[in-house]
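re: that chain from earlier
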Amino acid sequence: MEVTLRALLPKLFPDLHESEHWIIIPHEGKSDLERSYPIKMKEWREPGVRFVILRDNDGADCLTLKRKLISRVPDRAPEYLMRIVCQELESWLLGDLKALAAAYPAAARHRQFKSLSRRDPDQLTNAAELVKDLTGTRAKINRSEMIAKQMQPERNRSRSFQVFVNGLCGFLAE
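^ sequence. v structure.
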């Protein structure tokens, strides 16, 4: 997720620079994130800091998961935005098939590629497997970065992605 965000955030906010406006803190999986963010939110001392917590859904019920994560936010926490990726990050990557084909031209010739344009990427339960098959690589981080570099946020068909982008834009505009 880290490399995808590093590629997307400058596209979404070209006037903001990472070193001055945000820090991406990667985690070693969901349980590490869930253990870590309440502590970070409670202990972070920089004035005006705000948190964006982003987690893959991985087949859970989005609303139940979001409520669970929000319930772990400490009292008097900094402002935050909680977003769930439905179902997994690869759903966002499949939301922009032009980006996928630009990063991996052979993907456009794959037998499943054309049918994906008629499917809701957020409803795919096997998005990671599809991206692996389409790209021909198991290198998850590399393929995410390659596709994210080609993504155009406004054409992404993933509703989960658009909810994230709209929420982030509103959150940063406050």
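Residues 159-173 form the longest helix (15 residues).
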